[in-house]
Amino acid sequence: MCLQANHLRNRNKRAGLGLLLWILMHACATTTATIRVVLADDHTVVREGLALVLGRADGVEVVGTAGDVEGALALVADQQPDVLVLDLRMPGGSTLEALPRSAVAAPHTAVVILTMHHRPAYARAALRAGAQGYVLKESAGAELVQAVRFAHAGATYLPPQLGVRVAVADDEGAPDGLAPRELAVLRLLALGHTNPEIGERLYLSPRTVESYRARIQQKTGRTTRAELVRYALDEGLFDPAVG
């Protein structure tokens, strides 16, 4: 009886150690999995330099690069990367307004915005559009690698010099209580897009876009396109050079 009991205890102990070993091995495999990255920047020298930086980082692989918005979206759809690093200002349309299209093409791809803009309004706009990271070009390098790791882990990354300012501004909420989708419609309206064009970009019907437009006009007290453009500029909601 005692020998049988000892045998059972030893077998259970071995089973427990085996389970613990499997858990540890699984955790190690998860944390050391390669992060696949698509990098998009319209400046060739910058793009190649950042690709080199990312490629040298442990556990990071650049699977494609692009020089414009459409090229980036095509790569994302084809490669299904873990992270898309996207320059805020590129040819081919508004980078931020391309984020919903990226989310449809690759739902599991996190986005890190690369920019030279220091204003918190730009960082807030990027986060509201769906980005998980915002990196200043002047400090790109180790900081970009960190942002990629954060985004892959599901966390948000902001530069230290911007983080507090963005957090404080976020407490104030969107201007005039505009919802995220209303902000997206407003940006495209201010950039001169028609209702059908906005609907195509945001996957909405023209009638739905018109409803959003009416709510925007009611909340902001602006009725004409010129007034909406001025409102968007005053609130730092978009940069006309980006669109």
Structure commentary:
Helix 5 (120-129) links the parallel strand 4 and strand 5 (133-136). The protein has a five-stranded parallel beta sheet with strand order 2-1-3-4-5, sandwiched between helices. The chain has helices at residues 2-31, 44-56, 69-79, 99-105, 120-129, 142-152, 160-171, 180-190, 195-202, 206-220, 225-234; strands spanning 35-40, 60-66, 83-87, 110-115, 133-136. Residues 1-13 and 26-31 have low confidence and may be disordered. The protein folds into three domains: 1-31; 33-169, 3-Layer(aba) Sandwich (Rossmann fold), CATH 3.40.50; 175-234, Arc Repressor Mutant, subunit A (Orthogonal Bundle), CATH 1.10.10.10. It has 243 residues and is of the alpha/beta class.
Properties at a glance:
single chain, 243 residues, alpha/beta, Rossmann fold, Arc Repressor Mutant, subunit A, 3 domains, five-stranded parallel sheet, 5 strands, 57% helix, disordered N terminus
Helix fraction bin: 55-70%
Distance between the termini: 80 Å
What does the main sheet amount to? 5 strands, parallel
CATH superfamily (homologous) name of the largest domain: Response regulator
Radius of gyration based on Cα positions: 23 Å
What percentage of amino acids are in beta strands?
5-15%
**Uncertain runs with pLDDT below 50, 5 residues or more?**
1-13, 26-31
Give the spatial strand order of the biggest sheet. 2-1-3-4-5
User: Structural class, from helix and strand content?
Assistant: alpha/beta
